[in-house]
Write a structure and sequence with these properties.
Blueprint lengths: L10 E6 L3 H12 L4 E7 L2 H11 L3 E5 L7 H11 L4 E6 L4 H10 L3 E4 L4 H12 L4 E2 L1 H12 L3 H7 L5 H11 L4 H8 L3 H15 L4 H10 L7
Parallel strand pairs: 1-2, 1-3, 3-4, 4-5, 5-6
Helix pairs in contact: 2-3, 3-4, 7-8, 8-10, 8-11, 9-10
């Protein structure tokens, strides 16, 4: 019997992790989804960069710590060669230094390996659609810390932004949708969009990825 070919409409996913058991689990999870399938794998950073550059998948799920080349270096080289490929970092590490390295290298998302399966699948779809994603566990911890700051601190961190614009910027950077931001700040989705447009215009930012990178550079995503 002829094996059925994957649908051309499916998201093409590449897996990079030095643990075979984790790769096999991820492959089973991805291939079980109706809208995605695994097109390649690598067990080290160098191979991940080279093979993904050749296969040109839609999304690379990239382990942060791998032999031969780190996930951050592999991501940076891959994005230089194929900027259209989206990278989703997958790691055990909650340390913000790893997050900073991966985002600055070009990753569009950051997920902890202890995340539930549905969360990982959602993250893959989010970055594939051009969005940014940060693990809710890590995001909630940092956002809680942020709202415990004095208002003057928040305003200063945002530079030329107002206090509310800085709040919206940071929530966007941590992966919250406009609807979720509206709920957290008790404002309408339309108002959130207005603040978003204002802050992007003030800072000359063009996308959510630009917002994440700006927030990292300005220290707006620190949890201390």
């Amino acid at each position: 019997m002829r094996k059925e070919e994957p649908s051309v409409d499916k998201l093409r996913i590449f897996l990079a992790d030095d643990h075979m058991v984790i790769r096999e689990g991820l492959k089973a999870l991805v291939n079980a989804q109706p809208d995605m399938h695994v097109v390649g794998e690598a067990d080290n950073g160098s191979a991940a960069w080279q093979r993904a550059s050749e296969l040109k998948p839609d999304v690379v799920v990239m382990d942060v710590s791998m032999p031969e080349m780190s996930g951050a270096e592999a991501t940076e080289r891959l994005k230089q060669d194929c900027p259209q490929i989206k990278v989703l970092a997958l790691t055990f590490y909650e340390d913000k230094s790893y997050l900073r390295q991966m985002i600055e290298a070009g990753a569009a998302g950051y997920v902890l390996k202890r995340a539930v399966m549905e969360e990982l699948v959602h993250a893959v779809r989010t970055v594939a659609a051009g969005g940014s994603y940060l693990d809710p566990t890590l995001a909630d911890k940092v956002i809680t810390s942020y709202f415990n700051q004095e208002p003057s601190d928040a305003k200063a961190a945002g530079g030329e932004l107002s206090e509310r614009e800085a709040q919206v910027l940071r929530l966007i950077a941590w992966g919250y949708s406009n609807k979720e931001i509206g709920w957290k700040l008790s404002i309408s989705v339309k108002t959130v969009d207005t603040y978003k447009l204002r802050l992007m215009e003030k800072l000359s930012l063009r996308s959510r990825t630009d917002i994440v990178r700006y927030a990292l550079r300005q220290g707006l995503m620190q949890d201390e």
